[in-house]
Amino acid sequence: xxxxxxxxxxxxxxxxxxxxxxxxxxxxxxxxxxxxxxxxxxxxxxxxxxxxxxxxxxxxxxxxxxxxxxxxxxxxxxxxxxxxxxxxxxxxxxxxxxxxxxxxxxxxxxxxxxxxxxxxxxxxxxxxxxxxxxxxxxxxxxxxxxxxxxxxxxxxxxxxxxxxxxxxxxxxxxxxxxxxxxxxxxxxxxxxxxxxxxxxxxxxxxxxxxxxxxxxxxxxxxxxxxxxxxxxxxxxxxxxxxxxxxxxxxxxxxxxxxxxxxxxxxxxxxxxxxxxxxxxxxxxxxxxxxxxxxxxxxxxxxxxxxxxxxxxxxxxxxxxxxxxxxxxxxxxxxxxxxxxxxxxxxxxxxxxxxxxxxxxxxxxxxxxxxxxxxxxxxxxxxxxxxxxxxxxxxxxxxxxxxxxxxxxxxxxxxxxxxxxxxxxxxxxxxxxxxxxxxxxxxxxxxxxxxxxxxxxxxxxxxxxxxxxxxxxxxxxxxxxxxxxxxxxxxxxxxxxxxxxxxxxxxxxxxxxxxxxxxxxxxxxxxxxxxxxxxxxxxxxxxxxxxxxxxxxxxxxxxxxxxxxxxxxxxxxxxxxxxxxxxxxxxxxxxxxxxxxxxxxxxxxxxxxxxxxxxxxxxxxxxxxxxxxxxxxxxxxxxxxxxxxxxxxxxxxxxxxxxxxxxxxxxxxxxxxxxxxxxxxxxxxxxxxxxxxxxxxxxxxxxxxxxxxxxxxxxxxxxxxxx
Length: 722
Description:
Structural class: mainly alpha
């Protein structure tokens, strides 16, 4: 109970410190730090900061309600903003961008993609989107007319009371959030998706096909080898096919409300695997829409489609509240494409007779093989070691007063955690040394560890880059300890803090959190820009190593693996916001993926490779800092400000000019070629690209770190090729 808050009887309850009680079981949204394996003072600090942040948000909402009542002009403005939703603007951006990208592919004379195929895929995708919207509206109408339970969540849990929002006069306003997920899959309820965001269906269905189409246009206009064109085209066909499957899953879900949730989730998942396998055979063998997939072994395609649905199922069932529907679709599509690439390499090494034609004449890059081995191998490690990880988490969640009644039991309990951790590390080493490494050697013909060392030491610039990264990290740690890692003075005397100054305290905590998060955005610029300009191939491999390391550290954190699990959790919890309320913390992984994805995709245009770093390191950071400090005019229907959007545009454009011209002055080849060929029209196109990206950042509720870099990369690639 919070002090100073009256209960229904009008009495002020006494303040009780629920955190200091070791028998207290915190709420689920207070995170895994509440387990008994974390020190009590660290738990108190983490939970205090999160509760203060929530209290600040509630105070802001109350003040906005009072302001709404006080002024008729503000009331009219509020009504206007409610009528102008963010969804139509975002939908217009996605629709315009998709049509423009595929129009470029359609009008490309050098493209091997037949125009009838492009028209066919475009028709199928948009027909699916239209069908999903029509079925959703008809289902909502039927449910509203029915006298029975009026929502899917009430069918799932009949005893749950429906949440109703009231204004100051206790009049009913609405029965849910306007941004809650509407389109769902596998019969999941809205609690399976990230709150305070729309479903992002258009983003999930259209983004990766746009990226693949832009990559195909870029390659065809650069007259690259036809087998490399086929390598990109098969990925375009694959992501389009997965987008259609997602639309089918959403459409099917609309008609499964009467069924029980268990049947819907597990039954629909299993049946969707079987139906999609049959659907894959029919489409790839009988339909003219997949000319390259038709030449690919059917087992390889079925594995990729199955993995796509498996990743979706994991996101919905296991990683609840971590993703919107659009985000989980993008992540699942990308993971399935990586798995498809790994199966291509394995097929080349072990089943050469079944290898697709385009792989016979394509050069296999050892660095790309290692990147696939790192990412897919880390997923494989998580699957194989899951029993040990689950046991480690169960031990960490066991309360002290049940586990440690005597000294002897305490020793046994500690030994169990130690054994689970050691077994996990040993099994990881066995998988790496005896499964992943031999397969990688069979594909590349070289020992992966020795090749990596040779690749590092053969170039002095790579050694210098590693030294530069080390010094940058050390400097960041020093800045962190001396400047940013602080606790406000008011909290040192009163803990937990639930006093009357909670608003000021919450503002201080929010400001500190924002500075801490944006520090890593600045760090990405300092670390990664030199790598893109001087050692692109080495940076690609380094990103693969970093991503696999982040995934492994998340295993340690979430499952509380001895001895570093709890320390990692306490450290990473310092950076969470309202998008990290699920079981896993993804902000740092998203930031890395946002910077790495344009670098992995590559382009002859160096600005395209820099898209993620510029958009997140300069644009997103500037928009956040300027918008929070100086923002006064908000975009209708959003919390983003016009000043923040303008700061995004100015920061990205000026930083691009400075980086390109300064790099050209010191003789960087890619920058010199770009500056020599770029005229006024190219820079105008680039400014338009930045503006569209800034608008998407302002109106979209999807995670900026993963969506914005890919969107900007697509537009930059095509804008430069006009």
